[in-house]
Write a structure and sequence with these properties.
Largest sheet: 2 strands, antiparallel
Order of helices and strands: HHHHEEHHHHHHHHHHH
CATH topology: Farnesyl Diphosphate Synthase
Distance between the termini: 21 Å
CATH architecture: Orthogonal Bundle
Strand order of the largest sheet: 1-2
Bound molecules: geranylgeranyl diphosphate
Number of domains: 1
C-alpha cells in the first residue's frame, strides 16, 4: 500500500489559523457571567474549549470560501457545528454509552463534573447550535437560515448522527454485515461532515451542481475520516489521540477494520480520498485546492 502523503505546511497553517479564530468565536459565544446557573456554562466551556482539531469548522470555512462568503458568517456556522459536535462527544462518553474516562487528553466531562452536568451541558450546547444558526447575524436572508437549521437538524437527528450512534450501540451485541457498518458510519460521522461542506454552499447560494460536488466530496472524506479513526483506535497511542485506545475492540464494535482487516481498510481510505479529490474538479481556478489537500491530512493524521 502506498504510504499517505503528509499534509503541506500551507494546509497546516490554514488549519491552525482557522482553529485559533474558531476558538475565539467559541470563547465569545460561551461567555459566562455571574449567573446562578453559571456552573452549567463552566461545564459547557470545559466540554468545548478543551482542545479539538476544529476540522468541521475548517470544512465550513473552506467550503464557504469557494463561493466568496463573508468569513465571519462562515465561522459562526462552523462554531455552531462545533458546539453540536462537542455535545455528541460529551454524551458519547457517558457511562450509558462508551463510558470513557478521557477525551482530548483530559478527564471526560462527567468525570470532571458529574453525569447530570454532562447531560445538561450537552443538551444546552445542542440547543445553542440552532439558536446561533437562526440568528440574523449568521445570514441576513431568512431562507438561508432556515435551510441551515433544517439541514443540520436532519444531519444530526434520528436519520443522522443520533441514528448512527444507536446503530453503534446495537453493533456491540449484534454482528453487522459490511452494508450495515457502512450505513452506521455514514450516519454517525458522515452526515455531519457532509453538512459542514454543504453549509458553505448554502451560505453562498451555490448552484445545484456545485452543491452536489461538495456533498459528494464530503461523503467520501467523511467515510475516510471514520476509517482513519478506527485505525487510530488500533494503531495509535493514548498520547496521540487523547483517549484510551482499543476501545472499539473491547466493546466488540463493528467497524470496517474489524470486518475487512487493517490493510484493506487503509486501501479503502486511500481510494475514498482519491475519489473525494476527483469530485472537486468542477471548481476552477484552484478554488477546491485546499479541500483536495485536506484528504492528505485525513490519511496521514495521528490525532
Ligand atoms: C451521543 C448523540 C450522540 C452521538 C455520538 C460523534 C459520536 C456520536 C460519537 C463519538 C465517537 C466517535 C469515534 C465518533 C466518530 C466521529 C469521530 C471521529 C469523532 C471525533 O471527531 P474528531 O476526531 O474529534 O474531529 P476532535 O476532538 O478533534 O473534535
Amino acid at each position: 500500500m502506498p504510504s499517505p502523503r503528509q499534509a503541506s505546511p500551507e494546509l497546516q497553517q490554514a488549519m491552525n489559523e482557522c482553529r485559533e479564530q474558531v476558538n475565539r468565536t467559541l470563547d465569545n459565544l460561551l461567555a459566562v457571567e455571574d449567573w446562578a446557573e453559571a456552573s452549567l456554562f463552566e461545564a459547557m466551556r470545559y466540554g468545548v474549549l478543551n482542545g479539538g482539531k476544529r476540522l468541521r469548522p475548517f470544512l465550513v470555512v473552506q467550503g464557504a470560501k469557494i463561493f466568496g462568503v463573508d468569513e465571519y458568517r462562515a465561522r459562526r456556522v462552523g462554531a455552531a457545528v462545533e458546539l453540536l459536535h462537542s455535545y455528541s462527544l460529551i454524551h458519547d462518553d457517558l457511562p450509558a454509552m462508551d463510558n470513557a474516562d478521557m477525551r482530548r487528553g483530559k478527564a471526560s466531562l462527567h468525570k470532571k463534573y458529574d453525569e447530570a452536568a454532562a447531560i445538561l451541558a450537552g443538551d444546552a450546547l445542542l440547543t445553542m447550535t440552532f439558536e446561533i444558526l437562526s440568528d440574523r447575524e449568521t445570514h441576513e436572508d431568512p431562507r438561508v437560515r432556515v435551510e441551515l437549521v433544517k439541514e443540520l437538524a436532519s444531519a444530526a437527528g434520528g436519520h443522522g448522527m443520533v441514528g448512527g450512534q444507536m446503530l453503534d450501540l446495537i453493533g456491540e451485541r449484534e454482528e453487522f454485515d459490511i452494508g450495515t457498518i457502512s450505513r452506521l458510519q455514514r450516519l454517525k460521522t458522515g452526515k455531519l461532515i457532509m453538512f459542514c461542506c454543504e453549509a458553505g454552499a448554502i451560505l453562498g447560494k451555490a448552484n445545484p451542481a456545485h452543491r452536489q460536488a461538495l456533498r459528494n466530496y464530503a461523503h467520501d472524506l467523511g467515510m475516510a475520516f471514520q476509517l482513519t479513526d478506527d485505525l487510530l483506535d488500533i494503531e495509535g497511542s493514548t498520547e496521540e489521540i487523547g483517549k484510551d485506545v482499543g476501545q472499539d475492540e473491547r466493546a466488540g464494535k463493528a467497524t470496517f477494520v474489524s470486518a475487512m482487516g487493517i490493510e484493506a481498510a487503509k486501501m479503502r481510505a486511500e481510494m475514498l480520498c482519491a475519489q473525494a479529490r476527483a469530485h472537486l474538479k468542477i471548481f476552477d481556478g484552484g478554488r477546491g485546492d485546499i479541500l483536495k489537500e485536506l484528504t492528505n491530512y485525513v490519511l496521514a493524521r495521528r490525532v
